[in-house]
Amino acid sequence: MALTREQMAQRVARELKDGYYVNLGIGIPTLVANYVPSDIDVMLQSENGLLGMGEFPTEAQLDADMINAGKQTVTARTGASIFNSAESFAMIRGGHVDLTVLGAFEVDVEGNIASWMIPGKLVKGMGGAMDLVAGADNIIVTMTHASKDGESKLLSKCSLPLTGAGCIRKVLTDLAYLEIENGAFILRETAPGVSVEEIVAKTAGKLIVADDVKEMTF
Amino acid sequence: MAGLDKRVATYEQALEGLTDNMTVLAGGFGLCGIPENLIGEIKRRGVKGLTVVSNNCGVDGFGLGVLLEDHQIRKMVASYVGENAEFERQLLSGELEVELTPQGTLAEKMRAGGAGIPAFFTATGYGTPVAEGKEVREFNGRKYILEEAITGDFAIVKGWKADHYGNVVYRNTAQNFNPLAATAGKITVVEVEEIVEPGVLLPSEIHTPGIYVDRVIVGTFEKRIEKRTLKA
């Protein structure tokens, strides 16, 4: 079975380490916050200028001046700090964020990522995504492995305009966890009940199956 | 208005000198921390051909979105413009020019503009459409693109509290691009919720020192919430 959005978030959460500063993108990455292990402390960075994003507010806490990068109302946790956008991106560009999780339309074997623009359709803009992928060393891309029509999103070469070049090394899809090394996807883990053959069939770019490929458990 | 007292009494005075084809830098992120009343005054004045630099362009009928209604904006420099149907229509019809700029690059362009730095190298956007036509240089084995600073004829800024010297503090994440825009305007206008007596704001807690600020006005704000999200 392909992973649910929640299972994808759970799997990403296993990459969190005590003391990490983490930036979570919109969509599935946001859900990762729900699965932070209770025995570790991580600080969530929201690029509109909040380090230490807390839970969504109660009605009484609701504050128009307190939002996250997805423009949702949020709270600040104990130990949080708030700053301007240049300071926020100094953290990101300066490599101070330990883990960045974001979605994508396509990735390829060279570590390129396309996530912001589909020519001919509405172009909404890249927001902070280009800064995040250029500034972070440790990035996990979360995405579906193939489109609804079965077209692979793990390619030899991205077909859409890039968000960043050569910056992605870890990809979690609904079918698999893969790493990108030396011009190939390395299959490290399969979703429970998903065969290696299915993943091979749905990966357009060069794929190497690791000798010790594991099945994820939840 | 004398010396270091930056207060003005009316919004008309606040934007005196704003004319067609000027560049306006605006603070705000989404609808959070936007200079609502200064935007309203731009609309009232009817100036056209503006270049507006802001992370977003409001929504239909609120924020910078209201300036699209009468085609006052010629060019928009922003990182994300996804919430606005009229914006999309004008973009696709060619009535509106748009320069999409990565959010961190946009912030740094304003910061550099205000700090007298004409351009800077960044890895952001290298290898993407953003890099087209820009100088590339390698430092320590990595490629960077040259991005130029931005300054504006006017900066419109939303603060929380200010004193008459133009010292400003912002509230929570309504800070965002506001302090950056404030540094990079030839004329910087700050509207605030409250003007306090000098000495009330602690010198060590000022976000925008008054040297950057030309005019301060007190206003009332709707503070519309774009995505009201409550704890489940």
Automatic annotation (TrEMBL), chain A:
E.C. number(s) listed in UniProt: 2.8.3.6
Keyword Chloroplast appears in the UniProt entry: no
One example GO MF annotation: transferase activity
Keyword Transmembrane helix attributed: no
Enzyme category, top tier: transferase
Gene3D superfamilies: Glutaconate Coenzyme A-transferase
InterPro entries, per the entry: 3-oxoacid_CoA-transf_B, CoA_trans_fam_I, CoA_transf_AS, NagB/RpiA_transferase-like
Chemical reaction(s) catalysed: 3-oxoadipate + succinyl-CoA = 3-oxoadipyl-CoA + succinate
SUPFAM superfamilies hit by this protein: NagB/RpiA/CoA transferase-like (SSF100950)
Pathway(s) where this gene product acts: Aromatic compound metabolism; beta-ketoadipate pathway; acetyl-CoA and succinyl-CoA from 3-oxoadipate: step 1/2
Pfam families hit by this protein: CoA_trans (PF01144)
Family under the similarity heading: Belongs to the 3-oxoacid CoA-transferase subunit B family.
Protein name as catalogued: 3-oxoadipate CoA-transferase
Organism: Pseudomonas fontis
UniProtKB/TrEMBL annotation, chain B:
Transferase keyword on record: yes
GO molecular function terms listed in the Swiss-Prot or TrEMBL record: transferase activity
Pathway(s) annotated for this protein in UniProt: Aromatic compound metabolism; beta-ketoadipate pathway; acetyl-CoA and succinyl-CoA from 3-oxoadipate: step 1/2
Keyword Iron attributed: no
UniProt xrefs under InterPro entries: 3-oxoacid_CoA-transf_A, CoA_trans_fam_I, CoA_transf_BS, NagB/RpiA_transferase-like
Matches recorded under PROSITE patterns: COA_TRANSF_1
Catalytic class of the enzyme: transferase
Keywords for this protein: Transferase
Enzyme Commission no: 2.8.3.6
Domain of life: Bacteria
Family the UniProt entry places it in: Belongs to the 3-oxoacid CoA-transferase subunit A family.
Name this polypeptide is given: 3-oxoadipate CoA-transferase
Organism encoding this protein: Pseudomonas fontis
